[in-house]
User: What shape does this take?
Amino acid sequence: MTLAPPTRRRRPLKQAVQNAGPVTYVVLTALVIFALGPILLFFFNALKTQSEFGTNPLGIPQSWHWVNFIDAWQQANMGAGLWNSVIIVGGTVLLTCFSAGCAAYALARLEIKGGDAFITYLLVASSLPTQMFLVPLFYIWSNVGLYDTQVGLILIYCGLFSPFATLLLRSFMLTMPKEFEEAARMDGASELKILFTIVLPNALPGLLTIALVTGLSAYNEFLFAITFIQSSDLLPVSTTFFSFQQGFTQDFTLISAAGVIMIAPMLILFLALQRKFIDGLSSSGLGGA
Assistant: This one.
């Protein structure tokens, strides 16, 4: 009788915490302060008056001015900005997931000529600074009628974020077994049917990961948004900070309040999907050993 090789079991979280040394607690505490400190400071500054911000920029507010959030919301018209961001982010995520899913399936499962060269191209494209595309894209978009449109901005974001999304999803698909796909081919299923009924449903953690990364990147992007959209009713929420500038002065309390309003949806979304995000990264081989 042959014995199965012993499997490595993960230690329970409680036992890992008990065995952690003081250095581990110090490092983790420093990381928590580094991550949450700027957000708390942002929140405290949003509740101060302009004069108190000038005298006490790093402390807790003496009086809590919650009206700053209402003033920031109304003055910057953040309701319209958030709705525009939902449209732009949603379109970018859908288009990027579709294009990256098709490209990743071709690179991971199909024997195509020049596949290695295309992977190298994606690596180079994802490492290039995005500012170098600004001038040629502005010229092309102005001539084809995509300037000052949300569709044009969605296409730009899809081109910017698709290389990394393709590489990430390809790494995830390489870890998936091929038995279901081979069985579907024997039954006469086409490659598109295999992709949409077998591969992509099983690659859902990877798709959620690239959707979250792409959505966060598109939501926070500022340079292309302010360059390619000029109509105030089409601007996303990331450009609303210009509303608090008066001449050569800025109201930093309202800027802080608008910043808190802006990061709240993405922070809640990330906390809700963080387990799927970590599982997708670890399954793709990009999360470390």
Remarks:
- The two ends are 33 Å apart (CA to CA).
- The domain at 87-235+275-284 is CATH 1.10.3720.10 (MetI-like fold).
